[in-house]
Every structure is written in C-alpha cells, then in structure tokens.
Amino acid sequence: MKRYLLFVIVFLMVVICCTPDNDSYNLSISKDELEFTPKGGELIVKVTSVYNWECKYDADWLLVRQQANRIRVIADENPTSKPRSEVIEIMINGAVENEIVVTQYGTELNIENKMLSVGSFCDTLSVSVITNSLWTFEHQIEWCTIWKDESNLFILVDRNYSMDERCGTIVVNAGDLSYELEVCQAACQWYNSFELVDVEGGTFFMGAQNNDSESFNYDASAYQIEAPVHEVSMTSYAIGKFEVTQAQWIAAMGTNPSVVQGDSLPVENVTWEQVQEFISILNENSGLSYRLPTEAEWEFASRGGNKSHGFSYSGYSVLGACGWYYSNSAATTHKIGNKTPNELGIYDMSGNVREWCNDWFGYYSPESVYNPQGAEYGSVKVNRGGSWTTPAVNCRNSYRHTDYPYEAAHDLGFRLVLPVD
User: Fold this and answer.
1) Tens digit of pLDDT for each residue in 241-298?
2) Cα–Cα distance measured from residue 70 to residue 221, given in angstroms and rounded to the nearest whole number
3) pLDDT tier at 150 (50, 70, 90 boundaries)?
C-alpha cells in the first residue's frame, strides 16, 4: 500500500511539472499588426511555438490559412470608402496566446478635373485619377477613344464636323465609388464642317455597255451614253463623305432653297451656277480649294475606288441597302448617312439626291485617259447618282444625267471634292 501511494504521488508530481502555465508556452509571432490597401492581397505571419495552436476570427472579408509555422492572411478588396479591422486570435488549448490586428483602408477616389472642354479639331487629353484601389472606366462616347494607365485617363477626341456642340460622360469607378467626367467639344465653323474621305489614285474602267457580256462593265440596263467603256487613270483626291446639307448651305448663303427642308437633309433645288457661288464663299472662308468632282472622280469614288467589289450601286448589289430611290423613299429626301456606305465609307452616292459634277457633258472616247475633265465646252452639265424620285436603273454607278447649269430640281444637290497635293 505504501508503494502504491508513493507511485501515485510521484505520478502527480510528474504531471504537474510537465503541464506548463500560460507563461511557459513561449509562442511568438513575427507581426502583430497587418495593414492592407483597399486592393486586398496576402500577407504572411511567422509563428514560433512547440505546441499545437489554432486561429480564430469572424470577418468574412478575411481568409486565414494556418500552416505549420506560419499564417497566411488573405484580404478581399474593400469596395467601400470605410476602413475595416479584425483581430485574429492565436490559441493554445482554448486560451488566447497572441493576437494579430488586421486593418484595411477604405477606397479613395478623386479626379483632377471633372469637366473637360476641347475645340472642334482633334485633340488628346489626359486626366489624373487619384486612388488607392483598382479602377476602371466606362463610356458610350462614339467620338472619343479612351485608354488608361495606372494613374491617368487618356482621351483622344475626334474632330467635330458638326455645327453643334457635343458632350459625353465618362464614368470612373473604384470599388463602390464613382465619378462622372464630362467631355464637351465645341461646334465647328460651317466652313470646317465638311468631312472628307481620301480616295487613293488608281485605274478603273469607266462607263457601262450592254453588248458583250464577256467584256468589261457589262450591264444589260446600260444606256448608250454610258458607252464605250474606257480605261481611266486617276490621281488621288478627297471627296465628301456626305452630300452637302441644308445647314451648311444656309450658313454660307443665308437662305434655303430646298423643297423638303431640314438641317440634316441634303440641300436640293440648287443650280450648278449657285453651287459655284457657294464654293467661292467656302474657299474664301476656309482658305482651301474645294470644287465639284469631275465625272470621272465621281464614278471612281462611287464604285469604291481601289477597294471596289464591282457592285452596280454604290456600296451594295441591292439598292435598298445603300440608297433611297423611288421604291423605298416615301417620296421624300432623307437624312444623310442613314444607309450602308460604300467600300470607301462614302454615303448616298446612289439615290437620295442627284449630284452635280463639274463637267460639261460629252460623249466618251474609247481611248485611255488620265484625269479627264469632261468636254471643253457645252450646253449642259453632268449630274450623277439618281435620286429618291428615280427608279433603280438610274441609281447605278455608271448612269449619266444632264441639266442646264441654270436649272434646279427638287432632287438635285451636290457633294464636294478637295484636291490632294
């Protein structure tokens, strides 16, 4: 019995001696404070202890991964402007032995300038974006190209050919925060409002013929004055992307002769002679040398220049897709640029309104020609393209029409050419 009691006493003494108090766990950590930016991320805390330990925390924006001798603390992005904090408890045998205080800053966002004004010509702007978080932007401005780096927003503003000011909004986002940045571009002067398309010089077969289906530009609908088909070589030039509008005419001339009126409608009911007066005023104000296209320039551009797909109409094989004519116009002109453009990006060369050319009318020669200017003299001027009043056959690329230079019609307008040096 004495031996048994002695054994129990010794055993209890060993147990007591081998069970450390709180001071004897000797658990240490490399950091007891962690700070995260709003972007979130991961930080590591090293743990030194010979005893088993575990972590306890409540925050749902933290993920704590416990490993053999370290703690991986992963923080989500903080989308709000409010900072947040959490305490991670490190425990042994249910007792808290150490703590890690985790703090995450709130999102900050500020924009240097929330209102940008730019002139009517092309320009590139930059805006400083001050934030401590990841940021993005969104917009629906068709006339701006926008990109970013880490701390700047870049805005490439297209030239404004409209005689109206235009504005758009860019939204900058960081977390739950957002700022609206407004971009306003000044209206252009009327004499700078003519958007042009570059036409690279080249060689094409001009006209049409209905005699030989195996030969160039066969068209069963061709009229006699469209023949003979002949080779034409052109130098480069720029031509109006759109027909001249009533707003542009009024700005120069002060009156509107059009029968169907509207600022964005093509001007019509103008004589060739009146068009020359308009061009003179335009050139005086712009300092440039606009003119009407030659008949060859008009047809080369209408066919799509060097990018031509060989369509009968300007831009498509089906006229209804690219032009307003008798069957789809509802007996009226239409706003410029509402149909499919041709291969060069030019609108309404088939239909809407006929278009004056610079040339006196003359019959074609079968000989190859270079930059033809039309007949040296004559009584009627050429116009091209057909109109909202005409059947499809008169809207073909090769179709020719004539009027006296002093005549006007409710379906007759024009577009401009600018020579390229």
Assistant:
1) 999 999 999 999 999 999 999 999 999 999 999 999 999 999 999 999 999 999 999 9
2) 86
3) very high
Contact 146, 156 (CB under 8 A): yes
CB atoms within 10 A of CB 4: 8
How far is it, in rounded angstroms, from Cα 119 to Cα 249?
Answer: 23
- The yes-or-no verdict on residue 11 having pLDDT over 80 is no
Q: Token pair 């089906």 is at which residue?
A: 318
Establish how many alpha carbons lie within 13 A of residue 242's alpha carbon, considering only the half-sphere containing its beta carbon. 20
**Is residue 353 within 8 Å of residue 387, measured between CB atoms?**
yes
Q: What percent of the chain has pLDDT over 70?
A: 94
Q: What size, in residues, is the chain?
A: 421
Give the type of residue at 26: N
For the cut 60, the answer to whether the pLDDT of residue 16 exceeds it is no
SS3 of the chain: CHHHHHHHHHHHHHHHHHCCCHHHCCCEECCCEEEECCCCEEEEEEEECCCCCEEECCCCCEEEEECCCEEEEEECCCCCCCCEEEEEEEEECCEEEEEEEEEECCCCEEECCCEEEECCCCEEEEEEEEECCCCEEEECCCCEEEEECCCEEEEEECCCCCCCCEEEEEEEEECCEEEEEEEEECCCCHHHCCCEEEECCEEEEECCECCCCCCCCECCCCCHHHCCCEEEEECCEEEECCCCEHHHHHHHHCCCCCCCCCCCCECCCCCHHHHHHHHHHHHHHHCCCCECCCHHHHHHHHCCHHHCCCCCCCCCCCHHHHCCCCCCCCCCCCCCCCCCCCCCCCCCCCCCCEEEEEEECCCCCCCCEECCCCECCCCCEEEECCCCCCCHHHHCCCCEEEECCCCCCCCEECCCEEECC
Q: What is the distance between the alpha carbons of residues 396 and 67, in angstroms, rounded to a whole number?
A: 79
**pTM (2 d.p.):** 0.80
Q: Is 348 buried (19+), middle (13-18) or exposed (0-12) by CB count in 10 A? A: buried
Q: Chain-centre distance of CA 373, in angstroms?
A: 38
Instruction: Give dist(CA 159, CA 145) in Å, integer.
Output: 12
| Distance separating the N- and C-terminal Cα atoms of the chain | 124
